[in-house]
Amino acid sequence: MKKTIDLGNSNTLKSVFRLMIPAMIAQWISVLYNIVDRIYIGNLPTNGSISLVGAGVCAPITTLVISFAYLVTYGASPLFSMSLGQGNKEDAEKIFSNAMFLLTILSVVVTALGYALLEPMLYLFGASSESFPYARDYMIWFLTGGVFAFLSVGLNQFLVAQGLSIESMIGSLASCIFNIILDPIFLYTLNLGVKGAAIATAISWFLYFLLVLGFVCWRAPTKRFFGGYSWRIMRKILKLGVSPFIILCTDSVMVIALNVVLQQSGANGDFYIECSTIVQAFFSLMTGPLLGISSGTQPVLAYLFGARKVDLVKKAEFQITTCGLIFTTLFFISSFFTAQPFAELFLKFSPDVSSSAKDVIAFSTKYIHWYMYSAILLTFQYTLVDGLTGIGKAKYSIWLSVNRKFVLLLPLTFLLPYLSHNPEMAFLAEPIADGVAGIVSLVSFLIVMPRILAKQRNSKGSALDEV
Q1: pLDDT at 331
Q2: Scanning 83, 225, 372, 397, which has its CA 20 to 30 A from the CA of 428?
Q3: Could you read off the pLDDT of 136-190 as tens digits, one per residue?
Q4: Which residue did the predictor score with more confidence, 381 or 68?
Q5: CA separation for the pair 439, 376 (Å, rounded)
Q6: pLDDT tens digits along 426-446
Q7: How many Å apart are CA 221 and CA 421, to the nearest integer?
Q8: 462: which DSSP letter?
């Protein structure tokens, strides 16, 4: 059995599957990790419903915090894999050490800012006077694990970049298991309420960090943690990481914008945010594994591109996109049968059996169906944009990311409810933006990709020169 995946193998489908499946599982586990928190919170014996609203306000903020880690890791890992593809281990080691330095600095800065701006941030991003105490308790304890969250994400991505996708999946699985075990202990046994869920998450991040650090030290062939610091390398990492960072952080920004719009609807604000929390959780069951398909397979694209095997790059990208389309199609079909049972999980064991709880389930189910309208077209936005990022072409992927979020989704989130005088219409912004952006990304990719590959075929530069 080989120690790592042979990323230069001409059998690209084998490489794609060996990277994609563990990455999908790891992303699904990461999503489950967050959903379990919310299910436990929603079923608290007292204040479960308002606690779920507080957690819903925090959810996009926690994702926004972690997205800064991906600014580094999704920028560094393609460069790292391209350098390995070119046989340049020295550059790969420098990229790794510079990435770890950036992650450490960013984790401290972002965590400190989170503490300093906590109260105004929560009110600005959709907390009401009723939900604020619960949101504050959750965020305070979540931020305590911020540094370990950043470093875990970084180390885990470098495992994938070196073909150690199984170890990456094991790390993610263990982290989820830690959280599932710790959640009921802190929430119910110790009766800590919503803060208990955040404490469990912080401890899980720490244990996750220790595990992936062990894997890197034990298994990874390239693991230079210190030295060789260079602003030039850091700038290259950040430049390439901007596109996936925009995708991830603006996912959070869009949910925050949705929460703000829903909270402005008046007395029903907390009701709509509770529904949105459930809808976003369901949607993440699709977008999480889809991100695993698109980002988890970047190392094979980066390696082949660095090795100038452009025909294999085309072949692999077609296979990745096909896998994405199969997954989203199956998820779209299954959503018609799973939406309502999923929504019921959040309040199923709660003593609150009021008509309000039943309304939350009914309306959440309806909004989930709305979100699925453009699920299949969204595949192109993920696999093609991440494919461009994987081969180091950030200028294209950044534009396509901005188009979906800032040109389409953000304006629609505010305009649709304003023009219709109905806050529900904010839930239609996502499927409209996803459908249009998916088509735009497909057309743009078909235009620019042949030119990029033709140029790379005759290129002589290193990975750090080509970005």
Answers
A1: 96
A2: 397
A3: 988 998 888 888 888 888 888 778 777 777 787 888 788 888 888 898 899 888 8
A4: 381
A5: 11
A6: 999 999 999 999 999 999 999
A7: 59
A8: -
Token pair in block for residue 179: 């959280």
Give, for 249, the enclosing helix (H) or strand (E).
helix 231-263
Given a contact cutoff of 8 angstroms between Cβ atoms, the answer to whether 168 and 160 are in contact is yes
Is 220 strand, coil or helix?
Answer: coil
Number of residues that make up the chain: 467
- Residues with Cβ within 8 Å of residue 362, at least 6 apart in sequence: none
Report how far apart, in Å, the C-alpha atoms of 66 and of each of 32, 401, 409, 446 are.
16, 18, 21, 32
List the domain boundaries for the chain. 12-466
Indicate the pTM of the whole model: 0.77
Amino acid at site 288? G
List the structure tokens of 431: 């499927």
Q: What is the pLDDT of residue 374?
A: 95
Categorize the per-residue pLDDT at 353 as very low, low, confident or very high, splitting at 50, 70 and 90. Answer: very low
Cβ within 8 Å of residue 326, ≥6 positions away: none
Tokens of 184: 């009921």
Residue that is written with structure tokens 């308002």 in the block: 50
Q: For tokens 């049972």, what's the residue?
A: 341
Burial 312-328 (b: 16+ CB within 10 A, else e): bbebbbebbbebbbebb
